[in-house]
Design goal:
The chain is of the alpha+beta class. It contains 1 helix and 10 strands, in the order H-E-E-E-E-E-E-E-E-E-E. The protein has a single domain, classed as Beta Barrel (Lipocalin), CATH 2.40.128. Strands 1-2-3-4-5-6-7-8-9-10 form a 10-stranded antiparallel barrel.
Length: 167
């Protein structure tokens, strides 16, 4: 094989392998989200009771979280793989639908940090909305979620400590 043909073959192999490699991190991270399936309970940053549940849907292509903070209406978040990352859409009582995304950079991660990508039904960027989410995986039965509410360019973190509910 000539040097030129070898170079072209090597370049083609690399261009095919790169997207496959990039997707493996999102697949591993999504499996971690799927492993959260079930009911969770805990406390918010003010010591108030909070519940959440995770359900794997659509033949394993989506994870639905239903978050029930004390004194608030339920909120639903749908997670799915999107290319080399994981996307979420958050449905909350404020009637807007923030979209966030994370691109995991390693298979051995302890947290997923989702960044705001846009929102449906958001009248202006200063309108209150969930703007950021960090899910920290402490172990198989303990997670911490930090949601960041943004309104008028001010961020307010909302912290939730969860323990898997034993049936």
């Amino acid at each position: 094989m000539t040097r030129r043909k070898y170079s072209v073959l090597l370049l083609l192999s690399a261009s095919i392998a790169l997207p496959l490699w990039a997707g493996t991190h999102s697949a591993a991270a999504f499996k971690k989200l799927q492993s959260l399936s079930g009911d969770w309970e805990g406390k918010d940053g003010h010591g108030m009771a909070v519940k959440t549940s995770f359900q794997v849907l659509a033949s394993g292509t989506a994870v639905m979280e239903t978050l029930s903070p004390s004194g608030m209406e339920d909120m639903v978040t749908l997670y799915s793989i999107e290319g080399d990352g994981i996307a979420l859409v958050h449905y909350c009582p404020t009637n807007n639908q923030p979209r966030m995304r994370v691109v995991p950079d390693a298979d051995n991660f302890k947290e997923l940090s989702f960044d705001f990508q846009g929102a449906g039904n958001l009248k202006s960027p200063s309108t209150g909305h969930q703007h950021h989410l960090v899910i920290r995986f402490n172990d198989a039965d303990h997670i911490i979620e930090t949601w960041t509410w943004r309104q008028d360019d001010k961020d307010i973190p909302m912290l939730f400590h969860f323990t898997r509910k034993k049936n």
